[in-house]
Amino acid sequence: MEHKRLTLFAGHYGSGKTNIAVNYAVRLAKEGKKVCIADLDIVNPYFRTKDSADELEENGITLISSRYANTNVDLPAIPAESYRLVQDRSVYGVVDIGGDDRGAYALGRYADAIKAEGNYRMAFVINCHRPLTSTVEDTVEIMREIEDAAGIRFTCIVNNSNLGSETTKETVLESVAYAEAVSLATGLPIWLYTAEEKVAEGLEGIPLLPLKLQKKYFDLPN
Which residues pair with 195 in a beta bridge? Predict the structure, then answer.
């Protein structure tokens, strides 16, 4: 799999971008790369990269997240350390961007530097089983809103269509037509399909990133 120095994941609320960002960062680390992951999701306090802090640390991955992540303080605070992602070109950066256009505004302050370097992948995470992205037209509309807010255009698509714990191999395969239609409508290539590890074992013929599902902070032992 070809990697860019910066990989940015964005999508509609509940698209699964946070879980994908964590899994991708771990994959980079296991390939021997120096990795830093940043949680720029200042909108959704329930699905946070920090929930996987222990796993990230075990894999030698630096985590940048708001000091208020996983607390009862809900402030849209972007950590100052996030600038490291565009300043330190010795690391592979993975960025989890907030859902929809409101969350994508957080990326705007880094947009010029990212585009100037030109070594990035901006992945649009899609899920046809989410209410507001169930059709190609609605999905493309969400995509354009995120692009306008972020100041960066998407370069590829990640199809994470799933039904949670009810996801089967057929669920993923049945979403292929949807993903291909989004690709055709936007002109963007499909970079990856994703599926939980056990489901992924039965899938062939598509570029696949098996996922270890991230635990949410309210599932973690106190």
Answer: 210
CA distance linking residue 149 with residue 57, whole number of Å = 31
Residue 210 pLDDT > 50: yes
175 near 128, Cβ under 8 Å?
Answer: yes
> What percent of the chain shows pLDDT beyond 90?
64
- d(CA 156, CA 30) in angstroms, rounded, equals 23
Establish if 1 belongs to a structural domain.
Answer: no
Order across the sheet with 208-211: list the strands. Answer: 62-64, 35-40, 92-97, 6-11, 120-126, 156-159, 190-196, 208-211
Expressed as residue numbers, the domain containing 36 is 6-217
pLDDT digits (tens, 9 = 90+) for 134-167: 999 999 999 999 999 999 999 999 999 999 999 9
More confident residue, 76 or 83: 83
Q: Which of 189, 114, 113, 128 is nearest to 157 (CA)?
A: 189
R_g of the chain computed on alpha carbons: 16
Asked if residue 222 is part of any domain, the answer here is: no
Residue 166: per-residue pLDDT? 94
* pTM for this entry: 0.89
Tell me the H-state helices in the chain: 17-30, 53-58, 84-87, 100-104, 111-117, 136-150, 169-174, 176-186, 197-200
State which amino acid sits at residue 9.
F
Number of domains in the chain: 1
Q: Name the residue with tokens 């860019």.
A: 4
